[in-house]
Design brief:
This protein is α/β, with parallel strands linked by helices and 261 residues long. It has one domain: SGNH hydrolase (Rossmann fold, 3-Layer(aba) Sandwich), CATH 3.40.50.1110. The protein has a four-stranded parallel beta sheet, sandwiched between helices. The two termini are 25 Å apart.
Length: 261
C-alpha cells in the first residue's frame, strides 16, 4: 500500500478484508503510506520515497500487487493556488501534469518487476463546504470541486486502460450510494435526506458506466467523511471491499482483473 493519507486510512480495513476473504497475505505499508504526500513528491524521490517503495516491493517474497492512492493532494494544491481563476486550458494542463506524475510513478514501480500488478484505488467525493472550515480551496462550489476530482480520476482510468497490468477501482459516488445522506446544518447540501441506493452506483470494469457514480452536485456523506476529506473506518472498509469486488480479489487469485462473481 502506497500513497497519501487515504492509503494510511485504508491499511487496517485492507488487512481485515484480506483476512475475511481468507487470504494469507501480508500488507506492507509502514514506509510507503505517507500522509500528505503528492505524486510530484514521489516521482522526485522526495524524502527517499522511491527508495522506500523499492524496499517494500522487493522484500522477500516480492510484492505481487501495489495498491496506490495518490493525486488528491496534488489537485488540492492546484486549487489552493488559484485554480478557479485559471482558464480551462490551463486547468487541463495542470491535470495532465498530475496524470503524468502518477503514470511515471507507476512506470517506476513496474520497471524490472514483470509480475507486479498495480491497482489505483480511486477517490470518492469529498465535502467541499466542510473543508472550507480549515483548508483554503477558494473559488469553487461542491459541484465544481467534484468535477475537478472527476477529471483527475478520468485520467487515472486512462492510465489503467492503456496498460494490462494497471487497474483502476472506481469509487466516485460509492459512499453516497452505500449510505445515503441527511442534511447537516449549517451546510446546505444535501438539501433533503436520501437513502442507500437512491443515487447511481459507480460503474465497474470493463465499461465503468456510469462514470462517475452518485450525484456530482452533492458531497460525500458527512457521517462517513467526518473531517470532510477522510472516510471513517466504516467508509474506508466500504471502499476497499468495493476495490476487492471490482477486481482485486481476482488478482489475489491470480486471475484477470474483473468483478467478483
Amino acid at each position: 500500500m502506497a500513497g497519501d493519507s487515504w492509503s494510511v486510512g485504508l491499511v487496517m480495513p485492507t488487512i481485515d478484508a484480506l483476512a475475511d476473504l481468507g487470504f494469507d497475505a501480508t500488507l506492507t505499508w509502514e514506509a510507503t503510506a505517507v500522509a500528505g504526500s503528492t505524486a510530484a513528491q514521489w516521482v522526485t524521490n522526495d524524502g527517499g520515497k522511491l527508495l522506500a517503495l523499492d524496499a517494500a516491493l522487493d522484500a522477500d517474497p516480492p510484492a505481487e500487487v501495489l495498491l496506490l492512492v495518490i493525486g488528491g493532494n496534488d489537485l488540492n494544491r492546484e486549487i489552493n493556488g488559484g485554480w478557479a481563476k485559471l482558464p480551462k486550458f490551463f486547468r487541463e494542463l495542470a491535470l495532465d501534469d498530475i496524470r503524468d506524475d502518477v503514470q511515471n510513478l507507476i512506470g517506476y514501480a513496474m520497471a524490472g518487476r514483470p509480475d507486479l500488478q498495480v491497482v489505483m484505488v480511486g477517490y470518492d467525493y469529498l465535502h467541499y463546504d466542510f473543508l472550507q472550515l480549515y483548508v483554503s480551496l477558494p473559488g469553487l462550489d461542491q459541484q465544481s470541486y467534484n468535477e475537478a476530482f472527476i477529471a483527475l480520476e478520468q485520467r487515472k482510468l486512462g492510465i489503467a486502460q492503456a496498460n494490462s497490468r494497471v487497474h483502476y477501482a472506481h469509487n466516485l459516488g460509492l459512499l453516497q450510494w452505500t449510505f445515503g445522506d441527511v442534511p447537516h446544518p449549517p451546510f446546505f447540501l444535501p438539501p433533503v435526506a436520501y437513502g442507500p441506493g437512491a443515487v447511481p452506483a459507480p460503474g465497474v470494469w470493463p465499461t465503468y458506466t456510469p462514470f462517475p457514480g452518485g450525484l456530482v452536485q452533492l458531497p460525500g456523506p458527512l457521517d462517513y467523511l467526518p473531517d470532510g476529506i477522510h472516510p471513517s473506518l466504516e467508509g474506508f472498509r466500504v471502499i476497499i471491499d468495493h476495490t476487492f469486488a471490482q477486481g482485486l480479489e481476482a488478482l489475489m487469485l491470480h486471475e484477470p482483473w474483473g468483478p467478483s462473481p
